[in-house]
Amino acid sequence: MSTRVLLCDDHALIRRGIRDTLNDAGDLRVVGEVGDYGGLREWLRDGGQADVLVLDINLPGRSGLDVLQSLKDTGESLRTLVVSMYPEEQYAIRCLRAGAFGYVNKGGDPGELVGAVRTVAQGRKYVTPEIAQMLVESLTTPEPEQAHDKLSDRELQTLTMIASGKRLSDIANELMLSPKTVSVYRARVLEKLKLRNNAELTVYAIRHGLVAD
């Protein structure tokens, strides 16, 4: 019996690429596609059934991290694999703590994605060697907490989006929030990181590997 996979990503082209990669594997079958949390809840309410949810972090409205927490709170049995463009060193641990079974980068090899879905479908955690090393190092030589570790998931998301060059209005539209709410998140980030403006936010994000240089 093939493993049933549900995709949750707001970019149709990305979903198509993932769908083709998984369906070509032979033992995996994409049974549904949704673009946001609302679509995911509707799909589940309508009786949709899947073994693995492939989830993006950056979704409109509720982020992938919010979705993970919601699935945990509602007791959903879906095993979730996060597939994201964001750097592993900052988001993988957060996702695993939020209930994800694994984390892979969108820029990785397609074969890695197939292997990750198979692993998660078996009820096992999937981590790359890089993430495994991070976990070992965190246990043996705990690093001092960095300022951005104190940010909430939404604040961290706002930081990375600003650092990627997006305007507050763009962020508001993408996250389905009001510009005022995004401004509040930005103000909190500036205060917690003791920074003054977007330029300093961008430098901070690049320096700490939160976005690509």
From TrEMBL:
Output the Pfam families linked to this UniProt entry: GerE, Response_reg
Instruction: Give the keywords, sorted.
Output: DNA-binding, Phosphoprotein, Transcription, Transcription regulation
Reply yes or no: does the keyword Translocase apply. no
GO MF annotations for this entry? DNA binding
The UniProt entry, under Gene3D superfamilies, shows:
3.40.50.2300
Q: Which InterPro entries match?
A: CheY-like_superfamily (IPR011006), NreC/VraR/RcsB-like_REC (IPR058245), Sig_transdc_resp-reg_C-effctor (IPR016032), Sig_transdc_resp-reg_receiver (IPR001789), Tscrpt_reg_LuxR_C (IPR000792), WalR-like (IPR039420)
Q: Which residues form the HTH luxR-type domain?
A: 144-209
Q: Which residues form a coiled coil?
A: none
Q: Which SMART domains match?
A: HTH_LUXR, REC
- Response regulatory domain ranges (all copies): 4-121
Q: Which residues carry this modification: 4-aspartylphosphate?
A: D56
GO terms for biological process, alphabetical: phosphorelay signal transduction system; regulation of DNA-templated transcription
Q: What is this protein called?
A: Response regulator transcription factor
User: What species is given as this protein's source?
Assistant: Inhella crocodyli
